[in-house]
Amino acid sequence: MLQALMSMAAYPFREIEKKWQTYWESKKTFRTPVDVDTTKPKYYVLDMFPYPSGAGLHVGHPEGYTATDIVARYKRMCGFNVLHPIGWDAFGLPAEQYALRTGTHPRITTERNINRFRQQLQSLGFSYDWDREVDTTDPNYFKWTQWIFLKLLERGLAYEAKVPVWWCEELGTTLANEEVVDGKSDIGGHPCERRMLRQWVLRITHYAERLLEGLDHTDWPQSTKEMQRNWIGRSQGAEIDFAVKGLESPLIRVYTTRPDTIFGATYMVLAPEHPLVEQITTKDQLPEVHHYQLLASRKSDLERTELQKNKTGVFTGAFVMNPATQGEIPIWIADYVLSSYGTGAIMGVPGQDERDWAFAAKYDLPIVRTVQPPADFTGFAYTGDGPAINSGFLNGLSISEAKEKIIEWLEKDGVGTRKVNYKLRDWLFSRQRYWGEPIPVVFEDEQVCSLPENALPITLPELEEFKPSGTPEGPLALAEDWIITTNPDSGKAARRETNTMPQWAGSCWYFLRYIDPHNSECLVDSELEKYWMPVDLYIGGAEHAVLHLLYARFWHMVLYDAGVVSTPEPFAKLVHQGMILGELEYTGWKNHETNQWVSSEYVALGKHIETDVHLEAILIHQDQVIKDGENFVLKDAPHIQLDVRAHKMSKSRGNVINPDDIITQYGADAFRLYEMFMGPLEQVKPWSTRGVHGTFRFLNRVWRLITDQPLSDQEPNRTQLRLLHQCIDRVTSDIEALRMNTAIASLMEFTNAAFKWKELPRKIVEPFLLLLSPFAPHLCEELWEWIGHEESLAYMSWPDVQQEHLKEDMVDLPVQVNGRVRATIRVAMDADQKEVIESALDEPNVVRFLEGKPPKREIYVPGRILNLVSG
RNA sequence: GCCGGGAUGGCGAAAUUGGUAUACGCAACGGACUUAAAAUCCGUUGGCCGCAAGGCCGUGCGGGUUCGAGUCCCGCUCCCGGUACCA
């Protein structure tokens, strides 16, 4: 009964949404034919495709997906050919781990999850072209991922190298850096060791400069470009050779960005792993040096950086000559110097480097300032600019002048060269996993042989078990039948590569496959590629700011060089949607023993900061909370401050919102609308289920507005036309700028106004429904049909703004005296200054504040403001 | 530490880019309808003073530029994200 009444009150969104989803699917409304009319402009709107996890869609997915869907629907109505696809980034660890626990093949799990995701996305009414769905685990897809690998190999961009990886004997597997803590496995706490293993590596460093430079030509968030720049980490400096005392060779080469400070180099440090350590260390120092090397090798990268405050090192007993001063300086080894950057050796310049200062201070090494700090400088190492001192022929020069001069000198003397360095490392591309793309090579007599294109795809063998193989080769090593093969080129016996590709591989190029998803001849037809690329708008999470977006750009540049694609950069414009947090929470802290509240200013990490007593966090309803100055406090106990915060959604916190529940209760349209209405797309914002209720209410109002009475066939009046065209104007520019929140506000304002009209002209309602349709497509399709249309509105023309309707004849003009509003007067929009001032001076309040005197100065901005300045 | 982004009502947020600060929505309060509740509709809502007209204060803090500053400039504070021995 209650249910019946409620559904009577609300518009029948369940039936409507189901009806239109079925309609779009059966009519293939959003199919983009392969043979589109390429004389029309194109728009490629891309979502970061999801990893189909077992947990299903979370509320973060539809945020970006709704934004792109609105743009796609809008662009279609503007006459563009729109490419708006979706797919699945389905290789990855969770399915493999699930397989380990349950014995279910990852293929089964993946398929199940994909079906769930597809159904969820369809229930949101997204206008994807489902005929172009891609799945990275589909052999017809990863055939081309493997093909690209062959291209990389062919171009010398993939190579094998022995690189250190964490190996856990007990677990019989290699582990990622993050899985190893304190030299022990994160799971189980088994001892791990660094092993040098043969791994595939991609030469992304070859593209460092171009990856950096290409950023200048993209419309991407500043922060993301900056993160990529930092990741690539270009620096300019010099490499300098130091001669070891008493040895003809070898020379020790250091890299520095501050060659100008060489006169202050009072010692040298090698990384503990530096290959020359063994050779130069004196007999006396050898035991100590070996001990230090051993300790350093056990530390994980994380630990090495965590211990940065406390520098350690050991003297090798050897000395080098400083080429500038001709003085002897000692050689140390210390783990604050990384073997993987620069040359793995530095010159220690404590006067101008904070780390070197700390090291020198600890081990009592000499400190020489080579840049004059300002008089008021009170710190230790001085890294700022200033004139060079204690630096011979460099004295008096600024840093940049001194750098130039010293590099010239080094190069002339043959002891150094100008050098650019990058932090970017080559990309470790092997994984010892089952659920990934097999690497398309075989080994014949230990020699790598790439497989011919017609051997692709190399599919995964069926395994009974997914346990680690117990050797560093990964689970595929157990598939003996699969491993043993012949090299198709030579016909001789060969073994397959048992490592697989990392999860990033499939997502590096998926946007290309959407263009031509069923092509069995090539990765993508080049004519189609030329038409559709680059991606015009790419929306996805900021968590991919570096890795995915850098790897994809790298592969794309390689494909560009190989002539497969026509643009060097794949994504013209990129936007990150902000994370959606849980509902705002008010938390009070209570001492469990005494049952008394503790004000939040005394709480840190769930404990009382003075007594260290563990406190209980209690969620408090908003009604019990009041704001007192800066703080929120308990209404009944105003001296008790509360914590107010929206937290990241998490299972453990219990604040996860399931999209399915919201759709069931309010419908997809209200859900979409709410996610867009919350605030600016890029911003982090807290969820509010009451807010969904608000957009749901709005949609109900629209429903009633149009269904409660028949439309009028009368010509709209001037006000109606003005409000409509203002709405068209704002919604159009807001969608273009992805300001969905203010577009919706405009649509609401229009609806509020229309509710007050006695008659509703058809000529107003029709454009309004078109404006609303990208946001709430189901409702608008239904109402479009209701008012007498037989065809979907998906391809109706987007309404045009007519400038003449935007103008208002009369405005309420604020009149200021000395910059403060004292009256508003109703004047013609284009009234001239003289008459505006005259009518302003009729206002008693204006006269009062002018104290009867004529204004000294008048500023008039027609339609905006009149400001009178008194004497 | 460094890089990037922020700070506006009880809450999410607007502000035509220097021109009436708080649009739109949520919450709250008052009213209508109802046996009642839900739903819906109407109204009020930054603070202080005032019967009112109106006034004063107000966009994290302190200065400045300007007829006029949320917006521009200088100096801070705090919050969020990223990153960190990269020589």
What does this structure look like?
- There is one protein chain.
- The protein is of the alpha+beta class.
- The chain has 28 helices and 37 strands.
- Strands 2-1-22-23 form a four-stranded parallel β-sheet, with helices on one face.
- A hairpin with a 2-residue loop joins strand 34 (810-817) and strand 35 (820-828).
- It binds one RNA strand of 87 nucleotides through helix 1, helix 8, strand 11, strand 15 and helix 12.
Large-scale geometry? globular
Q: Could you give the order of strands across the largest sheet?
A: 2-1-22-23
Show unreliable segments.
1-8
Quickly count the helices: 28
Distance between the termini: 73 Å
Main sheet properties: 4 strands, parallel
Please state roughly what percent of the residues sit in beta strands, choosing from under 5%, 5-15%, 15-25%, 25-35%, 35-45% or over 45%: 15-25%
Provide key terms for this protein.
single chain; 871 residues; alpha+beta; four-stranded parallel β-sheet; four-stranded antiparallel β-sheet; 28 helices; 34% helix; RNA-binding
Q: What are the SSEs and their pairings?
A:
Blueprint: H1 2-9, H2 13-27, E1 42-47, H3 60-77, E2 81-83, E3 87-88, H4 93-102, H5 106-122, E4 134-135, H6 139-154, E5 158-168, E6 173-175, E7 180-181, E8 184-185, E9 192-202, H7 208-214, H8 222-232, E10 235-243, E11 251-256, E12 267-270, H9 277-280, H10 286-298, H11 301-306, E13 314-321, E14 328-333, E15 345-348, H12 354-363, H13 399-413, E16 416-421, E17 427-428, E18 441-444, E19 447-450, H14 480-483, E20 484-486, E21 493-496, H15 504-507, H16 510-513, H17 526-532, E22 537-539, H18 547-561, E23 574-575, E24 580-581, E25 584-591, E26 596-598, E27 603-604, E28 607-608, E29 615-620, E30 625-628, E31 631-634, E32 643-646, H19 659-666, H20 668-677, E33 685-686, H21 689-707, H22 718-736, H23 740-754, H24 762-772, H25 777-786, H26 803-806, E34 810-817, E35 820-828, H27 833-840, H28 844-849, E36 857-861, E37 865-869
This protein binds one RNA strand of 87 nucleotides through α1, α8, β11, β15 and α12.
